[in-house]
């Protein structure tokens, strides 16, 4: 039985090309009540839950690696602005042959919408449809989106009443999911039968943690556990961090969860983040380890729990692990983070091939996170400017723009003993946003192209695929080519030996943060991804960090 769609609020579209004031992206606005049957079917009450759909997240991959394939046309690509009545919280980009390109956005007021840019023989249109069936546990809950043969569903597992309101489930197979429960358990759920199959107890998983999964074998899951409030850095939405990393999988019978490895940190140390990151070799996991004594460092493990590589520590500062991708014309894989995104704003490129990570290039003046926010997906890597060289894409220091940063070709005198200064991280493009960024960066591979969307206050901006830009609405629209499940450029880079300068990391300032008061930040304290509505605890923390700088 289908439920009728609710009438959309007034949605204003402003379209144009960067550097030009002419309207080129949207020829007309379709009211939600006039949505085509495909959309109505997608958001009607589904007769049964699909067991073979494709899944989409606030990050480009369930591995936790924020890397997207394809090519964009930044900074001169065409874009469309969609205005909403409430600040945009989360965004998910989807693309499939049947349903085309679609974005799902959720707002601070709890409403959700699907946005569908359409290229057809009738012109270029934008459909904006409210998702009346979407009932999140909280407005902070990141959405999980499934597409299947043109249909689109936001997966909420409504019958799983103890699913954490700060996390989303992760699919395993055949309509089964794993999720984090309110009490920190890991639960295996059958959405077809609407029942719990198994539960790992005494995990004490982070309530706002994200379960990540390898994509090569497609069987291993990872989650942070051992939640503690003894490390009071409190920059990721609360003062709770993890002391354990669990590697687990669904049992062969499909009815149980099996733990392969549990990694426990030494006393006083925590995993400061919401999710580990699987590298593309399918054998290595990236984490951020922090402690009062040593500060924050990147640290990788193998699947048996052994430390593989360790980065430099910086006392008093957090490191935001972002992505692992190939950079520079020479195609070298680097792990990228932002050191102290609230203070120092240093974007760093690490060589992680040895036991000690080496900083190969860095540049200052960029951020990737707003203090007090649970949004760790405001960064992505890919070839957004279409020059066949990947960029690190993150917000400007004030959050009101996006930049693309590339590793430039070393000079002709570069040798194996060169200093890291000969690997230059340089800004190659910059765009301004209509307001401070409030959502994650939603990016998707649309055949050979890239499509990108981001929330800036109440405005959602979409950069359409480059192949659409010259479409005149007369001939047949460009077709969606078969999607590639892996990042080809990264796979090619990993399989091709390349030489870049090798040296020891540059020394970093060893600054100690001031003593922090014991504070509590409730799960609902930060209703937005900006600092405008942060809790008193976060404000006190910000004041203490300012004192440190003075």
3D structure, described in words:
- The chain is built from three helices and 35 strands.
- With 550 residues, it is mainly beta.
- A five-stranded antiparallel beta sheet has the order 1-5-35-34-33, with no helix packed on it. A five-stranded mixed beta sheet has the order 2-9-8-7-6, with no helix packed on it. A five-stranded mixed beta sheet has the order 4-29-30-31-32, with no helix packed on it.
- Strand 16 (212-213) and strand 17 form a beta hairpin.
- The longest helix is centred in the C-terminal third of the chain and has 14 residues, at 536-549.
Short description:
This protein has 550 residues and is mainly beta.
Task: List the main descriptive attributes of the protein structure presented here.
550 residues, mainly beta, five-stranded antiparallel β-sheet, five-stranded mixed β-sheet, 3 helices, 35 strands, 5% helix, globular, disordered N terminus
Write the layout of secondary structure elements.
Blueprint: E1 13-17, E2 28-30, H1 37-43, E3 54-56, E4 67-71, E5 78-83, E6 88-96, E7 100-107, E8 112-120, E9 123-130, E10 145-148, E11 151-154, E12 170-171, E13 176-180, E14 186-190, E15 195-200, E16 212-213, E17 220-225, E18 244-250, E19 257-264, E20 269-271, E21 277-278, E22 284-291, E23 295-302, E24 307-310, E25 319-327, E26 332-339, E27 346-351, E28 358-364, E29 380-383, E30 391-395, E31 401-407, E32 425-432, E33 437-446, E34 449-456, E35 459-463, H2 488-495, H3 536-549
Parallel strand pairs: 2-9, 4-29
Antiparallel strand pairs: 1-5, 3-10, 5-35, 6-7, 7-8, 8-9, 10-11, 12-13, 13-14, 14-15, 16-17, 17-18, 18-19, 20-22, 21-22, 22-23, 23-24, 25-26, 26-27, 27-28, 29-30, 30-31, 31-32, 33-34, 34-35
């Amino acid at each position: 039985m289908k439920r009728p769609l609710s009438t959309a609020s007034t949605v204003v579209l402003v379209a144009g090309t960067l550097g030009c004031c002419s309207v080129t992206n949207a020829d007309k606005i379709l009211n939600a009540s006039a949505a085509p049957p495909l959309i109505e079917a997608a958001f009607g009450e589904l007769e049964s839950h699909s067991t073979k759909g494709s899944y989409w997240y606030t990050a480009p991959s369930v591995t936790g690696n924020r890397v997207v394939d394809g090519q964009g046309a930044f900074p001169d690509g065409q874009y469309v602005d969609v205005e909403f009545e409430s600040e945009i919280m989360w965004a998910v980009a989807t693309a499939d042959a049947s349903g085309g390109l679609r974005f799902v956005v959720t707002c601070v007021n709890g409403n959700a919408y699907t946005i569908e840019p359409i290229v057809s023989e009738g012109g270029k249109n934008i459909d904006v449809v409210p998702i009346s069936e979407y009932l999140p546990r909280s407005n902070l809950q990141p959405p999980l989106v499934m597409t299947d043969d043109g249909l689109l569903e936001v997966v909420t597992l409504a019958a799983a009443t103890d699913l954490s309101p700060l996390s989303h489930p992760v699919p395993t197979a055949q309509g089964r999911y794993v999720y984090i429960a309110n009490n920190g358990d890991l639960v295996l759920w059958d959405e077809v039968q609407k029942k719990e199959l198994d539960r790992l107890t005494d995990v004490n998983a982070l309530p706002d943690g994200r379960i990540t999964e390898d994509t090569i074998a497609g069987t291993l899951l990872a989650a942070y556990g051992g939640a503690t409030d003894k490390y009071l850095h409190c920059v990721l939405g609360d003062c709770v961090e993890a002391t354990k990393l669990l590697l687990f999988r669904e049992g062969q019978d499909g009815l149980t969860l099996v733990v392969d490895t549990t990694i426990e940190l030494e006393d006083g140390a925590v995993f400061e983040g919401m999710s580990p990151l699987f590298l593309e070799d399918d054998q290595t996991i990236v984490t951020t380890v922090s402690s009062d004594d040593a500060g924050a460092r990147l640290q990788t493990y193998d699947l048996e729990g052994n430390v593989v590589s360790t980065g430099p520590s910086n006392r008093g500062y957090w490191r935001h692990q972002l992505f692992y991708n190939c950079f520079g014309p020479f195609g070298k894989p680097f792990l990228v983070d932002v050191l102290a995104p609230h203070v120092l704003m240093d974007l760093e490129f690490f060589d992680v091939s040895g036991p000690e990570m080496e900083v190969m290039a860095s540049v200052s003046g960029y951020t990737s996170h707003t203090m007090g926010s649970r949004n760790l997906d405001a960064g992505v890597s890919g070839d957004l400017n279409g020059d066949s060289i990947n960029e690190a894409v993150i917000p400007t220091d004030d959050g009101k723009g996006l930049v693309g940063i590339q590793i430039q070709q070393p000079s002709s005198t570069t040798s194996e003993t060169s200093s890291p200064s000969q690997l230059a991280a340089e800004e190659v493009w910059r765009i301004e946003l209509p307001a401070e960024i409030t959502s994650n960066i939603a990016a998707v591979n649309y055949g050979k192209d890239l499509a990108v969307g981001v929330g800036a206050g109440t405005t959602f901006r979409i950069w359409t695929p480059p192949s659409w830009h010259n479409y005149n609405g007369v001939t047949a629209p460009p077709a969606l080519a078969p999607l590639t499940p892996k990042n080809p450029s990264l796979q090619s880079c990993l399989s091709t030996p390349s030489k870049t300068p090798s040296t020891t990391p540059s020394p970093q300032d060893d600054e100690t943060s001031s003593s922090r008061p014991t504070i509590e930040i409730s799960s609902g304290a930060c209703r937005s991804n900006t600092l405008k509505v942060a809790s008193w605890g976060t404000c006190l923390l910000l004041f203490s960090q300012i004192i440190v700088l003075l």
